[in-house]
Amino acid sequence: MKNLILAATAIVALPSAAYTAPPTKPKLILAISVDQFSSELFKRYRPTYTSGLKTLASGIAFPTGYQSHAATETCPGHSTILTGRHPSGTGIVANSWYDSKTASSVYCVSVPGADPKERGHQNLKVTTLGDWIKAARKGSRTFAVAGKDRAAITMAGKNADGVYWWVDGTGFGTSSYAGPADAASLRPVEAFNASLTATWKANPPIFWPAPSTACAALRKRQQFGQLTLSGDVPPDMAKGVTTGENFWTTKKFNEALRASPAFDTIIVDFALDLIKRKNLGRGPATDVLAVSLSATDYVGHRLGNGGAEMCVQQAALDETIGRLLSSIEAQHIPVMVVLTADHGATDASERFFDAGGEAYRIDDRSLMMRLNADVSKSLSLVRLPVNTDDPQQIYVTADSKEAPRDQVIEATVKWLKSQPDVKGVFTRTEIEATIVPPGTPPDQLSMIQRFRESYDPERSGDISVAYAPRASFGVPRNIGDSVAGHGTPWDHDRQVPVLFWWPGLSTENRDVPVETVDIAPTLAAIAGIRVTVPVDGRCLDLGGNCPR
Predict the structure, then answer these.
(1) Of the CATH numbers 3.40.50.880, 3.90.660.20, 3.40.720.10, 3.20.20.100, which one belongs to the domain with range 11-354+489-540?
(2) Catalytic: which of 55, 72, 74, 80?
(3) Which of 128, 216, 370, 507 is deepest in the core (most CB within 10 A)?
């Protein structure tokens, strides 16, 4: 594991060009995360952006940043962005993990001891940028808005003034475990939800804009597993979901909404409403607003990222972010913006294969069933020996009276290594013995070092597994099933853009491997505060902002 360093003294000295220096103590720090926005996707569509993403890419752009860890999922990835810590420090090792004490699955933002439906920051072991600024500057406020609860909560931190996420059938919601849930905090939610519902009653929403000529050229009927999709825009899952009374409360409507450009539009609409209602950027100290846009992730999962659907989504995302930036600028708010992603992704294996790549689909459920069956048989066990809900993190659950724990691990490792789909297997003991020397560039981390950056002794599995790159997991059968994904330790899932921008900034493209954990200490320096907690990241020199 890397030695922990304080952001005040950790500086990346990178070549600088002539540009406007970062704003001194900006009134608003806007941190945008685009869920599943890989470097590959950013580079593919960068020449086509004309609005918000073009603006941000015209600032100081690191096109190939890194989520350095192995568990490239939503919750771990978001936990790194404003904490400066890898998942090994945040404790958020996956979207869910197995708790051996209760023999149950733990959702990353569930609340220990509370109603299973409650959501909060209690599993997050560290604080965030917003917490740091609030502790150092009286009057500072922190808010977070997202399509997913786990995105909003892990970026907001421990002492946010408002944390909001989309709740299917209701609109935006919150929880007293995540932040204030009093009348003042609920007022923006209630007002926005009521307005949104009234609008939908009068005019059902249009999820998808018409594709451009370039996007339309990508339309192609495609089979994924046992599911065939038309490739049309709007996609099959978005058709016929806005009919009937209270259509917005149905499961089909909300699934189609999430996997559409309209979802990001709603998130930004709420963020802009919150800025005005709370007068963000107009207080005595720097405010922090975290916004996580989730539609790219849902589109990528349900439809893949290589077709017309993602092309249209990227154009719409560009426009939506442009509207967000333009509104903030029109209000003359001194703003500092960063945009990144919680993880990358790869396209569905079938389409990647058709394009000449080496990829195939793994039926992970069947694979894990065979693992349990074969290990049970080899050791003559009655109970299933391992929990395999997450095929990358395997937990030993066998009764020690039936077989010694080490024997179960040895048999499981042997079986996994015999599988052609498996490219790396590491035990807990091996990962704990692994060291990541300070200053190791993220593009030079070995496979086991990537797993080390994801490792928490209380929450991680007994065996970590790396499967074949570019593989798609699961066998989709029905519309709405996932056809593509992420979560692996390979670079296509780890590489994400990191874009810094403020008004007046000139373009500078820095093709060096920075990390998402560098974002929080960099922004802290720009806000004029010293980070007094351990961090894994370092301050990126954007033009004299880092302390010497």
Answers:
(1) 3.40.720.10
(2) 74
(3) 128
